[in-house]
Amino acid sequence: MGIFASRNGVVTEDVTDQSSNINPLMYRYPPKQGNYFSNYFIMGGERFDVQQPEAYLFGDNSDLNFLGNRPVPFPYSAPQTNEPTKTLRALVNVRKESVRFLRTAPASDRGEEPSYTVEFVFDSDVSCSVTIYFGCAEEVLARGVRYVSRSGSPPETFHYKPGAGQVFSQPTVTWSPCNIQQPQIQVQTKGDIIPVVIVCEAEEGDDPKQHQATYCLIEHSSDASYVLKALKQKLYVDNLAYLLQDIYGIENKLADEDDTGSVLEDCDPEDDDEGGGECVICMSEPRDTLILPCRHLCLCQLCADSLRYQANNCPICRAPFRALLQIRALRKVQGPPTEVNSLCNVAKKIEFNCFGSVVYSSR
Amino acid sequence: MAGLPRRIIKETQRLMAEPVPGISAVPDEQNARYFHVVVAGPEGSPFEGGVFKLELFLPEEYPMSAPKVRFMTKIYHPNIDKLGRICLDILKDKWSPALQIRTVLLSIQALLSAPNPDDPLANDVAELWKVNEVEAIRNAREWTRTYAMGNI
User: Could you tell me if A210 and A145 are in contact, meaning their C-beta atoms sit under 8 angstroms apart?
Assistant: First the structure.
């Protein structure tokens, strides 16, 4: 029996029975046989029956395969229904959209294949280390996860001080198309080897140390150059893997937010137009409610309340919705100037108003 | 009558401040939910040069239900019937509360540029549009001249 528990919009995994040998294929979606999901889930301490069990509430079902092929024990006691929301505090964050390849000038004109260095922006509340694995295999161990680079020598680890908006750019971290035979290898299909994994690990905080893994694909673009694309991110806290999911519709807020440090309150209601942070229905209140599983942040709480009785589809994409999730954005970024100011990765700044523990009992 | 929702006030203000090119929408003096709309026939369409009057009404449930829109000027178009009713999916089952007066009017303008005789409302017009498009377009031009020029 396996239980998937999710909270704060990201997902963790747990089993009660660790003794038997676990077949990794059991933890892949879709399963070879039987059901992956049960016919109910638990959220905010309440049990909800579902008509159609085959559905992961926070994204595509195939996203679950990013969680690794082995269960890990759940380190916390079961939450009480009246327990307030717990916020997951991410200490490190690689800004997913900033991840890219930079082409380096060729060392000679002998017609060599060009090589690329990896560049991205990251935020860290504590001192941290960054390691980049090419052709990476992920091994889930009983205590934590281990990354192994299958191509070339063991990767170098770089150390950084705390700070927001730091740029990772190391001339010794290079990738060249001749390093790898199948550069377009897909994470989903090949399963085992991920082309590039960026691991950013906190060097302070509780043990085991937090880390964030950013999974990247290398794509061969039409002009014969290679492009690095961040695909998914996982945050490991207390050895639990939380899959980070983008929220669509939060982007405009962060553009305004950069220096003011306030997300919602600084929005001039007269100033924002259609693309702004206001609810698409009333056009007055700030957006704070997320539609699942399409993850469009487009409603205020009041309109979400009325929408759920009057419609079944997301106003933005018309996909049927299964749940509405109110998020409480932190309004102030307080504290020392090293406080991470970015909203690029929402896991840091938001707090869900329900304990989103999704339990799928299966097998 | 309940006060006007803020959304309608905002949409009206924005329509006034940044009108859609080729479209004017003015709220009625008596009823802020009723708009007098004028759409210019799009360039390159058989409706070019014509000026089409429409009425647009925001029902009580708006934006949870679609605005009611109707052509007041006679028009020869396979998706608009002789009462001026419009066959447009976003006004029916494809309505979304994220759509607005502005986007609805843009869609109607686009419908004039791209008639869709495969999803007809005016069957005779659609039929002719399919079997003899040249004649159908000639009719549309003629109707435009007769009913949509010098009418305002």
Answer: no
- Residue among B87, B104, B111, B136 flagged as catalytic: B87
CATH number, domain with residue B30: 3.10.110.10
| Nearest-by-Cβ selection for A315 from B7, B10, B97 | B97
> How crowded is residue A160: how many other Cβ atoms within 10 Å of its Cβ?
17
- The alpha-carbon gap from A117 to the nearest alpha carbon of chain B, in Å, equals 42
Q: Has B30 been annotated as catalytic?
A: no
**Range of B143's domain?**
6-148
Q: Which two tokens stand for residue A47?
A: 């049990």
pTM score, two decimals? 0.72
Answer whether B92 touches A (CB < 8 Å): no
Strands (DSSP E) contained in chain A are 2-7, 10-15, 40-43, 46-49, 92-94, 100-103, 116-124, 128-141, 144-149, 157-160, 163-175, 193-202, 211-220, 226-237, 240-244, 289-292, 296-299, 323-329, 350-352, 360-362
Q: Complex ipTM, two decimals?
A: 0.83
Counting the structural domains of chain B, the total is 1
Q: Which of A241, A232, A221 has the alpha carbon at shortest distance from A70?
A: A241
Reported as a single tens digit per residue, the pLDDT across A176-186 is 876 555 544 44
Residue B1 lies in a domain: no
The pair of structure tokens assigned to B79 is 């998706």
Structure tokens at A112: 């060599």
